[in-house]
Amino acid sequence: MDDDGVVTGGGSRSLKTAATVLRALRLLGDHPGGLCAADLAEYLGKSAATARYMINTMCDAGYAERDGSGRCRLTDAPPWGAWGTTEPASPVPGDPDPGAVLAEAATELYRRTRQRAYLVRRTGTVVASVTDTRGHQGLAKLPGLGQHIPPHHAHALALTKVLLATSPVYREAVEGEPLARLTPATITDTEALRRELEGVLRDGVAVDREEYAEGFATVAAPVVAPSGTSTVAIGVSCSARRLAADGDELLATVRAVAERATVQWAGELAARPVPPVPDAPVGRDDLVSGPRR
Prior knowledge:
By secondary structure, this protein is an alpha+beta fold. It has helices spanning 15-30, 37-44, 48-60, 101-113, 158-166, 168-174, 190-203, 240-265; strands spanning 64-66, 72-74, 116-122, 128-134, 148-149, 206-209, 216-223, 232-239. The protein is globular, with a radius of gyration of 20 Å. Residues 1-13, 84-91, 269-274 and 282-293 have low confidence and may be disordered.
């Protein structure tokens, strides 16, 4: 094993490993064309396995990305926005802190659907971050979804379709990105995506049907801040089979939980009635750990 150790005895990362990762970031900055795992390993004097681990970590965290040839390069901006930015953590200064509202909404959505629930927030101009997730042990996770969703994947996932449809700032920031084909079902036509986003605005809910990961689907709706802006999406992932069987109920539940969270965030829950959140039926897919085709 390398002297900096990918995993130490207690499962924690050593400071020496952190320093090596910082060296890897610097090397990527010195090679704008990118480095493959073998190149990075040679520069660092580490094994190929350690280099692959570092690349996976940097990509998952939003600091780097892989190109079509598999080479790794720095992203145009770190997860919080442009390098050196003084932009506040919230894109909408002045909005009241949602407190526990969003966490409670994610918990409620999981409880109602028994599907893995997510909160995604736009924390910078071109970055959307998964800030919360709920799900029981053994419940399938959405393949390939890390803490940060890169802009060139935003068109393929319901959680970021919501943000694209409702946030002109986010849409303008990422619309120059190529529409990467992640699966055979991914929308890669600009006009088709425009019509899709118009439907999201009309219906208040977004869906991806195996567009982000084969065998999986996601459903999401916006949680609107008191200022009227939409920088938060809430949704679930499920098997494509579950969506085909219970899609109407899942869409209604996601939309209702998002609407309720919007009202609670505005502090109006006691001022006006909130529609009840319908339970989505629990199907057989809840009893397995992965999607069934």
